[in-house]
Write a structure and sequence with these properties.
The structure holds 2 protein chains of 2 kinds.
Chain A lengths: L2 E3 L6 H4 L10 H5 L8 H6 L5 E4 L11 H8 L4 E4 L4 H10 L2 E4 L13 E3 L4 E4 L2 E4 L5 H9 L2 H6 L9 E3 L1
Parallel strand pairs in A: 1-2, 2-3, 3-4
Antiparallel strand pairs in A: 5-6, 6-7
Helix pairs in contact in A: 4-5
Chain B lengths: L4 H10 L7 E6 L2 E4 L4 H10 L11 E3 L10 H17 L2 E2 L7 H7 L8 E4 L13 E4 L2 H10 L1 E5 L2 E8 L8 H12 L7 E6 L1 H4 L3 H9 L8 E3 L4 H8 L20 E6 L6 E3 L7 E3 L10 E5 H4 L2 H11 L9 E5 L3 H9 L2 H8 L2 E2 L20 E4 L15 E4 L2 H10 L9
Parallel strand pairs in B: 2-3, 2-5, 3-4, 5-6, 8-9, 8-11, 9-10, 14-15, 14-17, 15-16, 17-18
Antiparallel strand pairs in B: 1-7, 12-13
The chains are: A alpha/beta, B alpha/beta.
EC number (chain A): 4.2.1.33
Keywords (chain A): Amino-acid biosynthesis, Branched-chain amino acid biosynthesis, Leucine biosynthesis, Lyase
Protein name (chain A): 3-isopropylmalate dehydratase small subunit
């Protein structure tokens, strides 16, 4: 998987501009991913590539079209120093793995990277970058294959149950 | 050890003490869907095996982003939602009432102590009513439509205490822009902003909504104002007979952070392209030539905002070099503005006054910018490409600053016109 490198505060308008929100099919949205802000990525991104970003990735609008556009482009993993809350949930729900890595500064665009979830490391240029574990309740949704699969078999939810993070 | 306003709401709705950091499956009192994110939510609901929504009376549907429909796909999405509303017996305000956040507030759909979700990031606006209100994605909304509940990680809170009285032509928008500049675009991520202090206590609902609305611009999960007489007065007429819960944070509540702001010397603030937290005093950008001014949105599309703009405008006209677009946030606010004679004043001065909707704010429907153009907007986001071309620039400001600048054709301190 190749790295596409982004900075801080990448907002969901940049990931998928407002004028394309009448679409909802991932493949159709992918045609406009990063349109006008990172056209090189839009043209060059290949299935299996990963997005590596700085702080607050996915801030702004709650549009779920953003993770869907990335999915449509074949991006399954986004690594960032931190994520905006709504994007983080939307990513997990739709089947993108949002991974927190506290210092992505050394990662280089275009270079190969591998992610080992079990070990909690991202490796690129022979350097291991630690990845934070996914919170347990998010992991349950990931394990199910997204929130739709998670909720399909459920007839009702058990209210007010909870867990510590 | 005491609890914050948000911890109190979750504890009350879950029937046991819940603390920040805990993940709970909490009941949802109200869910809002609109024309952009609603169709995806409905499809997800069906994919999840949803047949009947959990409670049609707790769901609010309306269309505001692309109304009247500006393309065939937009029309199809609205048609799809109308059919779903009819099938499910959900009340649909359709395109008749205006922008979702304004409409939910004025129809009394959010009240103290309630948990409200909307598939729109500015749902945090309803914190002004003392509700815990947060924006969610379409898949989360599909889950809510099916089960009437959702997982929440109960957020820590940042206490934001505001003191002092505003100088003339300085107000809530300048305050929240300065706070956004201070806290930063991700500085309140996963947290709630609890607004309090004498300035907030004396602030009318319009200003409180402006402040809570922009909590998301700091990454916050919610903004909230402790309910008081202002909240009660606002809601009593809109929700007759409803019990309005008494709610206040404990004096010994534990906060992630405490911040204090004194507005006594606050000057008009402007967010410069392309980040909401890139905020400066107006004099730093005064003289910047502008092509378009937008006064409206869920942030500043209320009567009070138009009155603020009209007071600055007086009997003058807008510059011929600037396209001025005025869009009330709702039918109710439109009528108030109309009856006060302000619509006539704006039209005489050279503005286009459009029917209630999101307008140019999200770059979907109209009022888009060409490459190289500059917009000054009372909305909430100035991201690259937000209002059209990615080569355009958007500055954010208060209604007073917008009006002053529309008169001169360049960014102008409203205290100087």
């Amino acid at each position: 998987m190749r790295i596409w490198k982004f900075g801080d505060d990448i907002d969901t308008d940049a990931i998928i501009p407002g004028r394309f929100l009448t679409e909802y099919e991932p493949e159709k949205l992918a045609a406009h991913v990063f349109e006008g802000t990172r056209d090189d990525c839009r043209a060059g991104v290949q299935p299996g590539d990963i997005i590596v970003a700085g702080k607050n990735f996915g801030c702004g609008s709650s549009r779920e079209h953003a993770p869907l556009a990335l999915l449509g482009a074949g991006v399954k993993v986004v690594v960032a120093e931190s994520f905006a809350r709504i994007f983080y949930r939307n990513a997990v729900n739709t089947g993108i793995l949002p991974l927190v890595c506290h210092d992505t500064g050394g990662l280089v665009e275009g270079h190969e990277a591998t992610v080992d979830i079990e070990k909690g490391v991202l490796t690129s240029d022979c350097i291991d970058y630690p990845i934070e574990p996914v919170p347990p309740f998010m992991q349950a949704i990931i394990d199910a294959g997204g929130l739709v699969e998670y909720a399909k078999e459920m007839k009702e939810v058990e209210l007010c149950t909870g867990s510590q993070r | 050890m005491g609890t914050t306003l948000v911890e109190k709401i979750f504890s009350s709705r879950c029937g046991r003490e819940v603390r920040a950091g805990e993940v709970v499956m909490a009941p949802v009192d109200r869910a809002m869907v609109h024309d952009i994110t609603g169709p995806l939510a409905v499809r997800v609901f069906k994919e999840m095996g949803g047949e009947k929504v959990f409670d049609p009376a707790r769901i609010v549907m309306l269309f505001d982003h692309q109304v009247p429909a500006d393309s065939v796909p937009a029309a199809e999405n609205q048609q799809f939602m109308r059919v779903f509303a009819r099938e499910q017996e959900i009340h649909n305000y359709d395109l008749r009432e205006g922008v979702c956040h304004q409409v939910l507030m004025e129809k009394g759909h959010a009240a103290p102590g309630e948990i409200v979700v909307g598939s729109d990031s500015h749902t945090c606006t309803y914190g002004a009513a003392g509700a815990f209100a947060t924006g969610i994605g379409s898949t989360d909304m599909g889950f809510v439509l099916k089960f009437g509940a959702l997982y929440f990680r109960v957020p820590e809170s940042i206490r934001v205490e505001v003191t002092g009285a505003f100088a003339p032509r300085v107000g809530a928008k300048d305050l929240i822009l300065s706070i956004a500049g201070d806290i930063g675009a991700g500085g309140a991520t996963y947290q709630a902003l609890e607004f309090c202090g004498e300035t907030i206590k004396t602030m009318p609902m319009a200003g409180r909504m402006t402040c809570c609305n922009m909590a998301i611009e700091m990454g916050a999960k919610a903004g909230i104002v402790p309910p008081d007489a202002v909240t009660r007065d606002y809601l009593q007429a809109r929700r007759p007979g409803a019990e309005i819960a008494d709610l206040a944070p404990d004096l010994d509540a534990v906060y992630a952070d405490r911040r204090t702001y004194d507005v006594t010397d606050l000057v008009p603030q402007v967010a410069v392209p392309h980040n909401v937290d890139h905020v400066v005093d107006v004099d730093e950008v005064a003289g910047t030539s502008i092509d378009q001014v937008f006064i409206g949105s869920c942030t500043n599309g209320r009567y009070e905002d138009f009155a603020e703009a009209a007071e600055v405008l007086g009997d003058r006209t807008f510059s011929d070099e600037v396209r001025v677009i005025v869009v009330p946030a709702s039918k109710e606010e439109y009528l108030k503005t109309l009856r006060a004679g302000l619509v006539e004043r704006f039209v005489e001065a050279g503005a286009l006054v459009e029917a209630p909707c999101c307008g140019p704010c999200m770059g979907g429907a109209f009022g888009l910018l060409a490459p190289g153009e500059v917009s000054l907007s009372t909305s909430n986001r100035n991201f690259r490409g937000r209002q059209g071309s990615t080569e355009a620039e958007v500055y954010l400001c208060s209604p007073a600053t917008a009006a002053a600048s529309a008169i001169t054709g360049a960014i102008t301190d409203p205290r100087e016109v």
